[in-house]
Amino acid sequence: MIDKETALARCQDLVALARRTGADAADAVARANASEAVTMRLGKLEEVERSESEEIGLRVFVGKRSASIHTSDFAPDGLRALAERAVQMARHAPEDRHSGLAPQDRLFTGELPDLELDDRDQPDPETLREAALATEDAARAVGGVTNSNGGSAGADRAVVALATSEGFARGYAGSGFSLSASVIAGEGGSMQTDYASRSARFRADLPSPETVGREAGERAVARLKPKSMPSRKLPVVFEPRIGGGLLGHLLGAMSGPAIARKSSFLLGLEEKELFDPAIRILEQPLRKRGQRSRPFDGEGVPCTDRTLVEGGRVTGWLTNVSSADQLGLGLTGHASRGGGGSPGVSASNVHMEPGDVSPGQLMEDIEDGLYVTSLFGQGVNPVTGDYSRGATGFRIRKGEIAEPVAEITIAGNLIDMFRALTPADDLEMIRSINVPTLRIDGMMVAGE
Fold first, then answer.
1. For 274-316, what is each residue's pLDDT tens digit?
2. Is the dihedral of CA 110, 112, 114, 120 positive or negative?
3. If we measure between CA atoms, which residue out of 197, 201, 237 comes closest to residue 440?
4. What b/e string do you get for 108-137 counting C-beta neighbours within 10 Å, with b at 16 or more?
5. Which residues form the Metalloprotease TldD/E central domain (predicted)?
6. 302 and 166, same domain (yes or no)
7. Cα(313)–Cα(308) distance, integer angstroms
8. pLDDT tens-place string over residues 265-275
9. Which residues, listed in sequence order, are joined to residue 233 by a DSSP beta bridge?
10. 305 vs 106, 399, 423, 428, CA distance in Å?
11. CA distance linking residue 391 with residue 371, whole number of Å
């Protein structure tokens, strides 16, 4: 796999080539990735995956017309043809007065901060095999587990580089490691399955394979013999593993492009108190070893830590160049880039601050409620905020988690759900979006 210096040189060369070919402005992003994963099932090697990829994407501007194209062909003739084709495409594209590159005075400058993103201690296949086997063995050792979908261990390393004709040129590398297991409990028609997984930038930050495997087994066994429950409005408690999805919906609604398209349920609510005033939601793109940490965004604008929700109110929208221009706002460092196409918007390392009570105290006054451990279905309307998802989990009876439940649906509206949300104190910073246990009163639960 190429290093970041090579990736950056390729970007700079391609931008220069595009300018010589007739582009008024251009940027290029290069990505390279190498990954390896091993899966064990029933104690035997089931799959070994190894992949490497390298690609470069070019975006060119001719006036206010633009085009994007990407390739994995790095031969000089191929890159020259790529630049020529991109400029030709741009000349025939419609004008977009909001498109463009980030201006020079908004670009990242100086030395890149050391975010500790790259663990060069990459494990060999045998080490991954041993970790995958230990993870599965621990899951299968839990009483009640009857079969396995497998245990896996993986490692990857990636390089990203960005260069623009405004003078920006930076790159960085990052690593990732993962452990997971999925097992089956019970027999015949009463079988239940569940999983556990963890990922981290540094292998040393992963929990032990035994911890991950045991969690997978215990989760599967706990789901045996589920029942339904009566349909009515109840308090609903979200475990941290899935509660982060609620923040995902919030971030999507705060996206500048969604606001510009008028396709966000937050339109007109900028000054409204959406959450309890005590709730704070933070973004930390510069957190060391964070799973989505990055020093600059997909347009070369520096990323900075910021508060997204303060005093119950959102503090502003998340923009890239196009949406900032449409909305008359400044750049916030949230542009995201794939291999080709125009930048989108994404946030980095978001978390909700913990509350003041334990999960047990959060539930102790619930006579009848639902503790949700998994969600399925895509029933969320980003324009209205209407929310309806299939769910499984556990009944809450007199403040205690009781029998497992399944074949139910939970519904509400995200605006109402945010206002009724209460966090517990069990926040763990182990994902890209982290929340503590969350309670929302008054949600509709549809069961039998």
1. 999 999 999 999 999 999 999 999 999 999 999 999 999 999 9
2. negative
3. 237
4. beeeeeebebbbeeebeeeebbebbbbbbb
5. 121-224
6. no
7. 8
8. 999 999 999 99
9. 444
10. 16, 37, 22, 18
11. 10
d(CA 337, CA 68): 12
Mean pLDDT of 98-118: 97
pLDDT band at 121 (very low <50, low <70, confident <90, very high): confident
Say how far apart CA 51 and CA 32 lie, in whole Å: 11
At position 437, the amino acid (one-letter code) is T
Q: Is the pLDDT of residue 338 over 90?
A: no
For strand 433-434 and strand 350-352, is the pairing parallel, antiparallel, or unpaired? Answer: parallel
Residue 38: name the closest of 108, 122, 125 by CA.
Answer: 125
Number of domains the chain contains: 2
Average pLDDT over residues 178-186: 98
Residues 211, 116: one domain? yes
User: How many CB atoms within 10 Å of residue 162?
Assistant: 27
CA terminus-to-terminus distance, the chain: 55
Apex CA 296: angle with CA 290 and CA 298, to 5°? 105
Asked if residue 131 and residue 177 are part of one domain, the reply reads yes
Domain that holds residue 184: 4-221
Give the pLDDT confidence score for residue 189 in this predicted structure.
86
Distance between CA atoms of 290 and 115, rounded to whole angstroms? 8
| DSSP designation for 255 | B
Assigned token pair, 125 = 């296949």
Q: Within this chain, do residues 185 and 262 fall inside the same structural domain, yes or no?
A: no
Mean predicted confidence (pLDDT) in 368-376: 97
pTM beyond cutoff 0.70: yes
Answer with the one of 221, 248, 274 that is the final residue of a domain. 221
Q: Which two tokens stand for residue 215?
A: 């969690």
Residues in the chain: 448
